[in-house]
Amino acid sequence: MEIKTACQGCHCECGVVVEVRDGRVVHIEGDPDHPENRGIMCPKGLSYVDLVYHPDRLKYPMKRVGKRGEGKFERISWDEALDIVAREFNKIREKYGPEAIGFAWNDGPRTYCIPYTALLYAMGSANSLLVAHICHMPSYIADSLSFGKMVSSEVGPDYGNSRCIMIWGCNPPATHPSKAKQIFEGMARGAKLIVVDPIFTPLASKADLWLQVRPATDDALALGMLHVIINENLYDRDFVEKWCNGFEPLRTRVHKYPPHKVSEVTGVREEDIVRAARMYATLKPSSFHHRTALEMHTNTFQTLRAMAILMAITGNIDVKGGNLINSLPKGYKSYFELMTGYDFRPPAEVENKRIGAEEFPVLCGAESFRPFSHLPTAIKSMITGKPYPIKGVFGAVNWITACENAREAYEGIMHLDFLMISDFFMTPTAELADIILPAATWLENDDYCDISYLNFFSIRQKVIEPVGECWDEKKIALEIAKRMGIIDRYAVKASSIEEFNDFRVKGIGKTFDEMKKIMYVEEPFKYKKYEEAGFNTPTRKVDLYSTVLEKHGYDPLPYYEENPETPVSTPELAKEYPLTLITAGKHIAFYHSANRQIRWLRELNPLPRIDIHPDTAEKLGIGDGDWVWIETTKKAQGRVKQKARLTLAVHPLVVHADAHWWFPERQGELRRQGYWESNINVITPSDSPYDPIVGSTPLNGLLCKVYKAEEN
Fold first, then answer.
1. H/E element holding 82?
2. For residue 177, is the peptide bond before it cis, meaning its omega torsion is within 30 degrees of 0?
3. Stated pTM of the model
4. Which 3 state secondary structure label does DSSP give 2?
């Protein structure tokens, strides 16, 4: 039997056809009829046959026995597990206040964060403990401040109808393959491709122009391009005059960034800066895509604002072939509508207790477009109790691999009174939990998809019953709320998975069962929607000059600022640490730290690797395949080792390390030791200075040194 559904191995949520025999999945392939991927699939989605039936998969609820960190658990019933969770969280609420509880998530695109966030809010807390400050939220907020919507990530670029495509700080063939397909289709129709990246990626090899920017200087490069576009009158004068706020102050600001000066800062040739600006501004319509590599330094937000302004002043917003403003079918409760809508969120007085709300109101406060706690500050609060202690955490999270300064994250967890993890496998963080709950995969639950879609939503329907005793996390959240006595405060008025799913399509007059017969609903797309009601900003125009930033005391226009630790800002330190480290690269086989249990995905990338230029390696006595130690200036945090991969794709002064590494194939104490062996986040910083607006940390652009590890 073949059943259509939608994958959730990454954000793309591709349509799939699943073959089921005798109640077991035997084959997965792309759905040629699905509007997102039209048949293609990446290895992550195809591997779920192996993931679902993996012998190490979590299948039953478990509770910790012995001390936290020893990795000892015993099987218990769901009733006992949920009763413990409810009891412990109610104890924390009563003793410390509801804000002492947080919801954490980082290692999967699973939309269970809607029911879990609703559970958090029902508890009376607003502490969403996600790695939001370095993953997607800076981009989401920068676009929202500028346009009122996100337009420059997976959702927005209309590559297929573009004449020029600019890809900046991301690698869609590895991270969003369905979008990469659209890029190649646009190129096949004649679009020119510009890639801005410190690494010569496979996509860069296909580009008409590749700009090898010095890590963490992207804001200077964007401002230099704006200088060219404005001074050569290449901007869209009609759009700017009618629909942009603050153009003249912007003109004055970019005057400080002529291409020859920007070239000195970024390492990009002056003529290439000018050429890129002219291509993007004149080969209209142009589309623009950036991603998380730009969100990992101390001037993240102003960098992203500069890129939003590039899209705006060239008139490439909500036009065919540009960056489109999505519009999902009316009446449908989308992921972002639920996560950002004020009918879903708690009162302002609760939101303003969120950790980070005072220091980073644009990221964490009640007026944020999509608020989260500032995670580094929250982890410190677990250790210090300041500004107040976080004592209980629940969710699907692997902080030991995902958080900067991983040892500090470990210490924070060890200070918790209670940790509940729901996941597919025993991860480094799950091993520290008090209760572990086995989660159902996308093949085993009913849900909706829309995170990466422009004008439609899709159905994800259960194709098999969950293995073992795994549960849909919507059910987990609802049952915890019932046992805690807070179901009446649950934002989604539902007492079952069926009611939860029906709630989201009630506005279009359907039930989930009726939707399964349709599979997806598409909204006819309309361009230039802003002509009807303006943009969803305070001025109803594109805010080049941000009144929101000005209100909070920030510079309302973008500017360049050197990272605090670079060969330019700290030349003496650079003598000991002569290389610049970047850590944001992704591999198509993995989603953050997930999937490393899957044998054939590991064959694609079996060991952690660091890319080093051959000339640099020769000077250091390093050969291809040698294990090398990597050290940053954070000496107290230790060092990690990875295998050297010699490649011309990186600059001689730059090294690029794999992220989120651990070794699930090891057992017991050897596995726990492995958590610190090769994970680059062991040696990344969690302390200030942060980006002043969204609290980002410099995971890209760090000084480091690399040397051969004699022992293997």
1. helix 78-96
2. no
3. 0.96
4. strand
